[in-house]
Amino acid sequence: MEKPRLHHFDVVKGFAIFLVVIGHILTFCIRDIDRAPLFKFIGLVHMPMFFFISGYFTYKHDFALPKLISRFRQLIIPGVVMLFLWTLYFPHSGVQSPLDMTLEGTLVNEYKNGYWFPYVLFVIILIYTLTTPVLRSIRSGVAGVLFIAAVCIIINVADNCFATPYLNDLFSLSLIAQFTVPFMFGVFCRRHSALFDKMITRSPYYTCSLIAGSLSLFFLAYRWDYPFMEPFQPYLLPLFHLALPIAVMTIAQQWCNTAFASPAGTRWGNIWKLLGRESLAIYLLHYFFLFPLPWLQEPLRNAALDIVPTLIVTVPLAAVVVTVTLGVNYLIARSPLLAQILTGQLNTQKK
């Protein structure tokens, strides 16, 4: 029987992937409304949670080559295949993109035409795997924290001091440096699971994380409006990446206690859990079901790009895109070969 706490992670991943689809509807379908507060906040919130959860479940004591090979098959192979297919299909999709959507442009595009996540996550997993012998030898909790922090600092310093713009775009170095922090925080929380349980069940931790996360999120989203905060910008993003998982997992843990009080779970609980379990497949497939909606630009601008009207427009559209994506994923899962190379599903027997 599943441990109840695992529901928290599935639900959070489900909500995060839904935010990904909303963000891409704003970016690819409607376009040119990047000033919308919803777009700003979504862009900062969803991906750190994926990396935190990945770090939490990647934690191990030893170097494991078979596990690394499995993650390569799960992330890199479908990421490359779907990127190639997306590049071929994009000219026929009708949607627009601020990125260079040619195959050649992908190589020197930091965001890899939208498919940066599998590559960046695998590189971070590789970096972490190479550090496991040192982390295993550390017995002191304080020394472990210092080592994890040192890994994050070294990667960020190397990116800021030594990476050229070309190398940064080619290898997505800034994204790797940025998301190493929430990933390694996930490692820390799994390594010290008792402390993490305390952080997400006691209100003082939640209160502090919510205040720190909200303030840092606000000044990150509106950094140009508050020039006096510029000296603090390098510290705001790591602070946000540390505060966000505590606040989010606290809420998710409490909600799941109710939603999954019975083994069957509630309807909404099972929906978010399904989205979480299929989050990688949704990420890889959903681009193909985006469609042009430029006629929504003007109404949203007339509504001052406010959060409420933006949600009213994008949530139903995202629900449709996700539903179609899940349907296609169901068909693909009937073929183990296609499931592996298109959606990274290495075990489809359960489907």
Task: Please give the structural blueprint.
Elements: H1 6-30, H2 37-58, H3 65-93, H4 103-107, H5 116-137, H6 141-162, H7 165-171, H8 173-191, H9 193-199, H10 203-221, H11 233-259, H12 267-277, H13 279-285, H14 297-302, H15 307-333, H16 336-343
Helix pairs in contact: 1-2, 1-11, 1-12, 1-13, 1-15, 2-8, 2-10, 3-5, 3-16, 5-8, 6-8, 8-9, 8-11, 10-11
Structure notes:
There is one protein chain. It is built from 16 helices and no strands. The chain is an all-alpha fold and 351 residues long. Helix content is 75%, strand content 0%. The relative contact order is 0.17. It has helices at residues 6-30, 37-58, 65-93, 103-107, 116-137, 141-162, 165-171, 173-191, 193-199, 203-221, 233-259, 267-277, 279-285, 297-302, 307-333, 336-343. The protein has one domain. The protein is globular. Helix 1 (6-30) runs parallel beside helix 13 (279-285), helix 3 (65-93) crosses helix 16 (336-343) and helix 6 packs antiparallel against helix 8. The longest helix has 29 residues, at 65-93.
